[in-house]
Amino acid sequence: MTNSAKTLCPYCGVGCGLEVLPPAQPGKPTNRDSQGTPIWQVRGDRSHPSSQGKVCVKGATVSESLDKNRLKYPMMRDSLDESFRRVSWDEALEAIVHRIQTVLQTQGPDGLSMYGSGQFQTEDYYIAQKLFKGFLGTNNFDANSRLCMSSAVAGYTQSFGSDGPPCCYEDLELTDCAFLIGTNTAECHPIVFNRLRQHHKQNRKVKMVVVDPRRTKTAEVADLHLAIKPGTDIDLFNGIAHLLMRWGTIDTYFIDECTQNFPAYAEVISHYPPELVARNCEIRLDDLETAAKYWAKSERVLSLWSMGMNQSSEGTAKVRTLINLHLMTRNIGKPGAGPFSLTGQPNAMGGREAGGLANILPGYRVITNPQHCAEMEQFWGRPPGSIRPQRGLTGVEMMRALETGDIGFLWIAATNPAVSMPDVKRTQEALRRSPFTVYQDAYYPTETSEYAHILLPAAQWSEKTGVMTNSERVVTLCPEFRDPPGEARPDWAVLAEVGRRLGFVEAFRFNSSAEVFAEFVQCTEGRPCDYSGLSHDRLRQQGPLQWPYPYQWPSPEGEEEKEQNRTNKRLYTDLRFNTPDGRARFAAYHSKGLAEPPDTDYPFILTTGRLYGHWHTQTRTGHIPKIRKMHPTPFIEIHPRDAARFKIEENSLVEVRSRRGVARFPAMITEAIAPGTVFVPMHWGALWADDAEANALTHPIACPSSLQPELKACAVQLEKVTIPTGSLHGEPSELDLKRNQALTRK
Ligand SMILES: Nc1nc2c(c(=O)[nH]1)N[C@H]1C(S)=C(S)[C@@H](COP(=O)(O)OP(=O)(O)OC[C@H]3O[C@@H](n4cnc5c(=O)[nH]c(N)nc54)[C@H](O)[C@@H]3O)O[C@H]1N2
Ligand SMILES: Nc1nc2c(c(=O)[nH]1)N[C@H]1C(S)=C(S)[C@@H](COP(=O)(O)OP(=O)(O)OC[C@H]3O[C@@H](n4cnc5c(=O)[nH]c(N)nc54)[C@H](O)[C@@H]3O)O[C@H]1N2
Ligand code: SF4
Ligand SMILES: [Mo]
Predict the structure, then answer these.
(1) CATH code, 150-342
(2) What pLDDT digit, counting tens, does each position of 497-547 carry?
């Protein structure tokens, strides 16, 4: 190909448009990376509505990662002690089909399971649901979104009657006050942050409040940083609500007409007077009052959140308690306002739309709703009763089922659970016991490939055509613009082929991902996430489009189209919610705090998260020199007071122990972290550093409603180790040190 292509960045859920150009352009020197390999040029797509031409370092360097360490051919082995041998696709697929049939006979459908990813495209997700839930008869499909977005899904669904972020990015530029809670937006959703920050800088009256135990890059520029004690968000929200009630700055008309359950909520918040809340959250009383005042005095309040809220044993309650504040002040369904969950992965949204978790079905249907099961049975031409209205196993439960022998077949795709799951040593042990694991990934090796019996090479972004949805419900077509390496194939095509080989020939007869998408969109018709009017062709011709986008909407790009695009920017503008009576639900929750609070044996709270340059388990970013230079080594952030207590100096090696495991990190002493709390990045699995796995320490205790584990907090003890750090991880980079200094500056 010699022309440029427009696509979407395959990293975070901001979903920036990219324009890519082939390495060789007439009359120009070939574009190469620092090692001399020709690479595609990447720049921001100015016509993309979400990003308007902007990109961050990850998007800008993505093409450097595409050709390194690729898995090119199917590989197989009979046991994990053997080395892999190259096999044909035919042999690999036959082995998979044979195993599925054996497990169906010996253990039944629930002996089968698949663990997928928000890095699937929507077509991959849909085919996996059709195969597992529709045709194999098990709801054991879960995705890494369980570790990421499931509390937001549960929160939206319970408060509004269905999933779906109701806001759009334009709200970032229309708000009077933005609350950023448990989100390091500046590093993790940089282009969303830039849009908000620009607006904030230009308008002195616009306020930015950051709620995060760490003084992050995001917190640095806030008007108010509430460095709450980890796990006290509900205290804070109920405390703000208490003050709003006291001041009478609530919208009683909206509460009466459009919501339910306010009295129960009012009773709960009466127990959260400001003095108590400030004490529980370990913040100043006047800061709490200032936060409440900002909320009360602003016409339009926007809240943005991500993992500091979702990854919690009370994640759903946190989300719903935040939504309460929006309901109580009618900060919803209007420009510049609303509760806006920032999605993590590039297509976590598409996954939700396509039913890609163990408790949902395509088209924002819920698996425990028999009517929804019946609709999908009919859609897929399956006999009544074939989809059981019972949720399947979550990712963590799949690991438990490997321990007990309850599953006999595990298919992992587009995720690296041997790094990213909580209590990862136990996870690794469980994976070691799996009788049959298929692992489908773009790269080799990854930490998870060590536990596979069959490796399937995946064509990844740029090598396959499919659709992804970003945080603001904008759907973008990502076309194939380069050839997959070796024999790599798109995920949807592999799943469809297995479906056909299992005998479901007609149901899985798809010749292209466009056909898969065309089938999928039909089952969204009439649903809250209706995009039955979308097709690959339309997205190719018209560019990215936002849902809802029903079939009835005509195609011309004239005035009518523009008008419709305007009306689907925000959900709930008519103040009718997706509950049976159209009213939103207040939630009455008391704060419970952390599942594993610190105690005398494990006196510190460990929190974990991300750095600007790296993406998760580094399968891509670990091979990009510029990013490695930015963050070459893991580290642990410790407050100077705690460091002094343990005689820990800058860069001395610290051993961190929890009840589950141990890890070691060079110390980074900084006032950016509160005393009593320490932070480590999640990016270093066993392939990238010795003993620096954040998840060796974390626990799997989950929110009872969303089943999302509390990856953001566990109790640990610290000890200084006396061997020199250089031998383990090398020195931290200039940039990380500078960042640390900048953050320490008060
Ligand atoms: N650079 C980069 N960007 C990414 C990713 C990446 O790997 N790298 N991954 C993407 C994905 S999948 C995701 S999910 C997002 C995650 O995006 P974020 O959620 O913004 O990132 P994290 O660093 O995981 O956590 C955010 C913050 O939560 C805070 N926190 C911890 N405990 C609490 C608490 O109890 N309450 C509150 N209020 N805050 C708390 C932490 O101190 C941390 O600063 O990023 C996406 N973007
Ligand atoms: N301690 C701690 N742990 C965490 C978190 C945390 O904050 N703290 N965050 C959690 C969250 S929010 C998330 S989202 C997870 C992320 O954790 P993972 O999903 O395990 O991390 P990734 O490195 O993104 O893994 C994606 C894999 O998919 C592969 N891949 C890329 N594209 C394709 C494709 O098209 N097809 C296939 N088959 N493979 C592809 C990549 O090579 C890579 O191996 O981590 C979770 N774990
Ligand atoms: S902000 Fe997210 S989507 Fe945009 S370029 Fe960066 S990683 Fe990609
Ligand atoms: Mo995530």
Answers:
(1) 3.40.228.10
(2) 999 999 999 999 999 999 999 999 999 999 999 999 999 999 999 999 999
Starting from the CA of residue 614, give the closest ligand.
Answer: 1
Q: Domain 75-148+352-504: give its CATH code.
A: 3.40.50.740
DSSP code at position 587: -
User: Closest Cα to atom 19, ligand 2: which residue?
Assistant: 415
Cβ pair 449, 80 in contact under 8 A: no
pTM of the complete model beyond 0.90: yes
Q: Which residue out of 9, 11, 188 has the highest number of ligand 1 atoms within 8 Å of its CB and is therefore the one to mutate? A: 188
Alpha helices (H) along 13-88: 57-61
Q: Is the domain defined by 604-744 classed in CATH 2.40.40.20?
A: yes
- Asked whether 59 lines ligand 3 (CB < 6 A), one says yes
Question: How confident is the model at residue 84, as a pLDDT?
Answer: 98
* Residues in the chain where the model's pLDDT stays below 50: 563, 725-728, 739-740, 742-746
Report residue 420 CA to chain centroid gap: 12
Domain assignments of the chain as residue spans, ordered by start: 5-65, 75-148+352-504, 150-342, 604-744
Beta strands in 218-266 (DSSP E): 224-226, 259-260
How many Cα atoms are found within 13 Å in the side-chain-facing hemisphere of 53?
2
**In 30-177, where does DSSP find H-type helix?**
57-61, 89-106, 122-129, 150-160
* CA 238 to each of CA 228, 245, 484: distance values in angstroms, whole numbers, following the listed order: 14, 10, 52
Label residue 87 left, alpha or beta by phi (over 0 means left) and psi (-120 to 50 means alpha).
beta
Q: Does domain 5-65 have CATH number 3.20.20.140?
A: no
pLDDT digit string (tens) for 210-222?
A: 999 999 999 999 9
